[in-house]
Amino acid sequence: MKNYIKLSIFSMALAAGMTSCDLEAPTQSTLDGSSVYSVYSLAEAEVMSIHVSFGETNSYRGRFLPYYGLNTDVEVPSGTAPSFASKNDDKQNLVNYDTSESNGQMNTDNNAYAKFYEGIERANLAIEGLRQYGDVANNKNMAQLLGEALTLRAVIYADLTKAWGDVPARFTPNNNDNIYMPRCNRDSIYKVLLADLKEAEDYCYWPNQNSVTKTTERVSKSFVKALRARIALYAGGYGLRGDGYRLSKDPELAPEKMYQIAKEECEDIINAGYNKLGSFKENFTKLCQDNVTAGGESIWEIPFSDGRGRVLYTWGVKHASKDQYTQQNQGGVNGPAPYLYYDFDADDTRRDITCVPYQWSKELVNGKSHQELRKISQWCFGKLRYEWMKRIVTSTNDDGVNFQYMRLADVYLMAAEAENQLGNTSTAWNYMEPVLARVLPAAKVNALKAKYCASKDAFQQGIIEQRGFEFAGEQLRKADLVRWGIIDNKMAEAKQKLTDLANRQGAYEGLPDKIYYTLDTDGETLKLYGLNKGEDNADKIKELKAAGWENKSWFVSNGANIITEDYINGLYVEQPSTHCLWPIWKTFIDKSNGYLNNDGIYGQLSD
């Protein structure tokens, strides 16, 4: 699947007939469903075609993955212009909590919202066909396909509700009776997804239990259970609703019930042992190297062919030129909040992998670029790097690296959170510890144990802290902040941290004002002095200067702070909790026959 995804006969007909996501029924294929869904190879092609909607130009590939997860207290656009507070830049307006229904990046018939419903329609067709003709009760491989279709539909609906809140709920193929549909309370969608995934658990194989699940590009029982846990946490958490930002009033989605689901599902995965934690760095090098072998930390990835997907383009280290590692001068679009590097423990191996202060140069020497220092406002995420790949990217925009949607560290930390919330803090630590033990010295892990296990509230603060460090740059943080009910506090804290960092006060007092740098003997690797507290020793600096090291002012340029007030204020321009959803785009409102609107968009259905 890494090299291609087969587009089925049914799905080609669907793509040809669908012009506005959920507004028009697709052209019907002349091939009878009984002929397709009773034959494994044909049925598999139908299920695999669901992935096509992930990779289309303005779907997950070019709109949802680059923009939904921003801005948070750990993730921001990487110093892009114009200013963050600009009211006239559509890209900035997608992330600064002031998004218009006419946003120029999204208000088109082929954007992510449309493609999500296209994928849902493909899934609906496959689910209906497999239920009717797949003999799933007697054919385990057909049952696996049904489980995959149910799970992929749940992925899309989970992301729809995350980004747009209450949305039309279509769980059957398009027909004359359901072409036009109003928004549906997301609670009813959550309950369908939780039931669907419970069913899918019985159908899907564990990783490597079958030839199908030997790859992280196919749905396994580990992913079904992990996704069910994640959706349960969303359903039981805070969200923006018609009468405010609050928990659900549905007793079936009470927090303790949802935490119980998350606990059971995550512990099943851990205890089954089909997935194993490796090193933190290894997880991301394998991702960059297209290593889709199941059984490691990666549980499921959105598959992109070599010529599709803008994952490194958006979340990787910037290459300013076509060089020895890539023929694509991209990367560095998004990066960590400038203070994140300093918030990490200096001994935490996640720090230097996650937060990268350099890019690869535009200047080439003998055809090769080198690392060069960026600005404090322009950090790169370093989890994804062209230089870790085993192939040279030649596409202008697409790099073909998969998007890692779920990994085992998330399962461990969801289990820890659920156990703690259910009153079992000591058990919760058993699930947090493996995640920390691989990145911190034993003495510091023990110190965190004492700190976090002091109380239930202290442990939850530890969950909030460690999920930020562990998953920065992976699009989980925004939804976490929303469901925990703390997005306003954390985003206000982010502004204060940026202010403190800009002025080197508070926790950032004492940071050196300059960074000294040179290239290592390989001519590529940047050596730095001055990023950390204490790295301003006069004798050391004198030695470095004598050795030819250059320096750069890190906080101030031409007498002004590099992290500007406009940069800080642009992190959000409206209250995040009441503006954490995107509106349904105007083009779909206009074509909905009056069924859709954005009345009270920042809070839709109240039940």
3D structure, described in words:
The chain has 607 residues and is mainly α. It has helices spanning 9-17, 33-36, 40-48, 52-55, 60-67, 90-93, 112-133, 140-164, 186-203, 221-235, 255-272, 280-288, 311-315, 340-343, 350-354, 408-421, 425-437, 442-452, 456-471, 477-484, 487-503, 538-546, 565-569, 586-590; strands at residues 75-77, 239-241, 244-246, 298-302, 334-336, 355-356, 358-360, 371-373, 380-381, 403-407, 514-519, 526-529, 550-553, 556-557, 560-561. The strands form seven sheets. It has a three-stranded antiparallel sheet, covered by helices on one side. A two-stranded antiparallel sheet has the order 1-5. Strands 2-3 form a two-stranded antiparallel sheet. The chain is globular, with a radius of gyration of 24 Å. Residues 3-7, 9-30 and 603-607 have low confidence and may be disordered.
Rg from alpha-carbon coordinates: 24 Å
Taking strands numbered 1, 2, ... along the chain, how are they ordered across the largest sheet?
12-11-13
Number of strands: 15
Main beta sheet:
3 strands, antiparallel
Give the averaged pLDDT, no decimals.
93
What is the terminal-to-terminal distance?
42 Å
Cα shape:
globular
Q: What percentage of amino acids are in beta strands?
A: 5-15%
Structural class: mainly alpha
Helical fraction equals: 40-55%
Number of helices: 24
Low-confidence stretches: 3-7, 9-30, 603-607
